[in-house]
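User: Please predict the structure of the protein below. I'd like the answer in structure-token form so I can feed it into my own downstream comparison script.

Assistant: Understood. Taking the following sequence of 102 residues as input:
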Amino acid sequence: MTNTQRTRRTPYNCSFCSKNQDQVQRLIAGPGGVYICDECVDPASKGNGERSEEEGLRCSFCGKSRRQVQYLAGGPNGVHICSECIALCQEIIDEEQPPHRP
């Protein structure tokens, strides 16, 4: 195995904006290869973006249906995230922020 093979890592991209992990501060992984970055969590947590009202859709992160959550935010290629997962992602991001000094 060469040094190049050992240091090469798999690039991960946000499933909503397609930015890679090196372009954002935080990339949060969900199951099945879905990811959301801190830059997409913020607008979704404020209710900005496309809300999917179509029946039969499920959150790509937790699998809950549209009926089980307050709303689903839609992304490209059929990726969705529910209000509950958005709140959880926001908590993860907030916990990782350095303490604010007065």
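That's the full token string. The beta strands are 27-29, 35-37, 51-52, 72-74, 80-82.
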